[in-house]
């Protein structure tokens, strides 16, 4: 579990103390310091997308957002999402949106990031060949162009590692809203490496919900309760 010093102090104040081996429960705690970005959303993409760089001896990794808890043995997850059909990267599609055009509009509607930067990113991708998602196109590269990126299962193969690095490059170049850059990165990887297969498993979001249960942060719960009280 990657945490900053403020989060660690909060955990300690709530009675969750590190043991002598540096664990809290099942989690080995990694306290990050000297952060490379002031934007914590961008900082969070380092362990999310570059796990093969942080753990070079690991053969596999499972990324889990802090709001999720695994409901299955990790080995069963590797078997189901990767080993069973020879995949090297697994991520679910978004539960509602499948086109980057929709994702851009939603990000701007909810003010997820600076609108000008989002527009610059979107214009660049369109100029470089990104098209609207067509679900009935028999030649489409992906079942959806928008992922639900809270749960990622990876084998640390050369192509999987290359995809993750290229995806991180887009997050660093434009916005940390990684759902905006996923499809562009995948299409770019495939077009630049036509002779090298990349076995990506983009599964349905209902499968993600089966293996990773959502627990909302307390601040979100308070906002929801406040909204309900207003209504």
What would a concise description of this structure say?
With 231 residues, this protein is α/β, with parallel strands linked by helices. 43% of the residues lie in helices and 16% in strands. It starts with a strand and ends with a helix.
Structural notes for this entry:
The structure is a single chain. The chain is of the alpha/beta class. It has one domain. The protein has helices spanning 5-13, 40-43, 45-49, 51-54, 74-81, 100-109, 115-127, 158-173, 182-192, 205-211, 218-230; strands spanning 2-3, 23-24, 27-28, 30-31, 60-64, 68-70, 89-93, 147-155, 200-203, 212-214. Strands 5-8-7-9 form a 4-stranded mixed sheet, with helices on one face. A two-stranded parallel sheet has the order 1-4. Strands 2-3 form a two-stranded antiparallel sheet. The longest helix has 16 residues, at 158-173. It is globular, with a radius of gyration of 19 Å. InterPro entries: TOD1_MUCI70 (IPR006852), TOD1_MUCI70_glycTrfase_dom (IPR048354). This is TOD1/MUCI70 glycosyltransferase-like domain-containing protein. Residues 1-217 form the TOD1/MUCI70 glycosyltransferase-like domain. It comes from Punica granatum.
């Amino acid at each position: 579990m990657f945490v900053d010093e403020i989060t660690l102090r909060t955990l300690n104040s709530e009675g969750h103390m590190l043991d002598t081996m540096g664990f809290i429960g099942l989690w080995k705690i990694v306290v990050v310091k000297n952060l490379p970005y002031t934007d914590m959303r961008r900082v969070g993409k380092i362990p999310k997308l570059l796990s093969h760089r942080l753990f070079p001896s690991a053969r596999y990794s499972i990324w889990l957002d802090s709001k999720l808890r695994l409901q299955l043995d990790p080995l069963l997850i590797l078997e189901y999402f990767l080993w069973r059909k020879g995949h090297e990267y697994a991520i679910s599609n978004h539960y509602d949106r499948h086109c980057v055009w929709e994702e851009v509009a939603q990000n701007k509607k909810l003010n997820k990031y600076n609108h000008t930067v989002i527009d610059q990113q979107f214009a660049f991708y369109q100029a470089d060949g990104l098209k609207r998602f067509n679900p009935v196109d028999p030649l489409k590269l992906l079942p959806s162009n928008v992922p639900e990126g809270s749960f990622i299962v990876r084998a640390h193969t050369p192509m999987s590692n290359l995809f993750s690095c290229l995806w991180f490059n887009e997050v660093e170049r434009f916005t940390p809203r990684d759902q905006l850059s996923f499809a562009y990165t995948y299409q770019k990887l495939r077009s630049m490496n036509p002779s090298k297969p990349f076995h990506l498993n983009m599964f349905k979001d209902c499968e993600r919900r089966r293996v990773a249960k959502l627990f909302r942060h307390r601040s979100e719960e308070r906002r929801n309760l406040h909204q309900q009280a207003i209504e």
